[in-house]
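Note to self: user wants both folds in one dump. Writing first protein now.
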Amino acid sequence: MTDERGRRKTRVGVVVSDAREKSVTVAIPSSFKHPRYDKIVRRTTKFHAHDEANDAKVGDTVRIMETRPISSQKRWRVVEIVERAR
């Protein structure tokens, strides 16, 4: 039996909003091929993430990790800033 605690989901996305205190909204794009029409469909999912240092700004590429519920919407936290916006 493996330890489940060490297997938290991580995602990489772009910060689209930093208007709230210690919170950011991260957009994560995904694409898949439609089963019937064979067209590539692009979708974007937004996650609300906790940013304790209040360091991430709009346009930054960040890595977020799944965590315990912090508020009614926040279930993710910013682990690192992969790339700063220009």
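First done. Writing the second protein, which came from a different request thread.
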Amino acid sequence: MKLRLDENWTTNNNGYPLFDENVEKYLGVLPTPAQAEKADKPFYCFIHYGMNTATGREWGNAAEKVDDFDVKKFKPKQWIKAIKASGATGVILTAKHHDGFCMWATGTTDFNVMNSALNQDVVWAVKEACENENMDFGIYLSPWDMHEKTYATEQYNDFFCRQLTELLTKYGDIFEVWFDGAKGADAKAFHYDWERYYKLVKTLQPNTNIAICGPDIRWVGNEQGKARRSEYCVVPEYLTVAETVEKNSQSAEDKSVGAMPKSSDEDLGSRELLSKHEYLKWYPAEVDVSIRKGWFYPGHGQVKSVKKLFNIYLNSVGNNSFLLLNVPPSKRGVIVRKDKLRLKKLGERINSIYANPVLSQNFDELKKETDGYVEFNFDSEKALKYAILREDITKGQRIEKFDLYLMKNTEKYKRAYSGTVVGMRKIIPVKGKYVAALLVVRRSRGTPCFKEIGFYE
């Protein structure tokens, strides 16, 4: 095999400019401090728990009453301990789903958990359980509300902001606020005042990230745990509103050229695509997927295998994305044994990735004179399992194409992996015993800049 080491970012850059006006523009798109901090905590869990837990539905039907939430007890400490064992660093709790039933002591409506048989502030209890386990705490608040009579009037925006204010001022630091734009087919047409919501969140919780219908974290485009082969963080700014407009709508004001991208499109960040858009944004993807087929327990009873969950982790966290894994407690108020065991074994698999480092280096910016490719010699033959690449994203997302070669005792390199973007983290599974490795960055937007190049047994 010809390694073609002379074909790299320092020479022909795979046929693309290393620096030009467009590249300078792309490199000027950087994460906020909150986004950069979140990159070090890429895996966290959803907890769907509420009226649907009691009724056994996925969505409400607008006919629920407080008494329908007949749950008598719940064990939030058990939830958080089980989730922590998975390797997750935080949880996002459904404070209110589409049925409008509020899981906290709210002054905005009587349709809340304090008037139910449970009579406990679930949001507070979960927040305390997170604090006890040093886990981050976030909230999901559904804009669509089947129960609230002011819905679809301007008064509802006031109502929703009062709910947001309660959640963002009474429960400590919130690491992520999760909005979605889901509505039933028969829901009344109504424009949510998104900009008002965002401004309120950033005023009350300036260090939080707003996800999905929001300016900080985007939806990956599916709920199957799949990310793209090339999952860019620098994308057209229009995607920040893509989930808030009507399906296939092209009516949003935007000075970009060409058709508006959708969250499900395969290409969201290539040079060819970005060149058609005037406004760009650092907007990383979040992969949201449930451990079960559905979002609320029992979720059709099908629980994903540990192998499936681990592959989702590699395809999300290991592919420049965040992972939000939903774990629904049962009506008995616990995460059931099967789910708990899957979480524990998932955590063991994740921990095994980083358990035995062979070599890890921080190169910062590579040098054009000497770093067209980078070689690593191990102190002895190593049974490698993973190679991990991380860019220094505070300097932008740069790498677009690379090859990884590994050498056995034959003293010949063989290509182990050919990849595209790196970004926050690229985890590459490998097999075999090797004595050396060689990384060739074939194409980059400006000088490649690594936070880590590491190899693990």
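Dump finished. Worth passing along: Confidence is low (pLDDT under 50) at residues 246-258.
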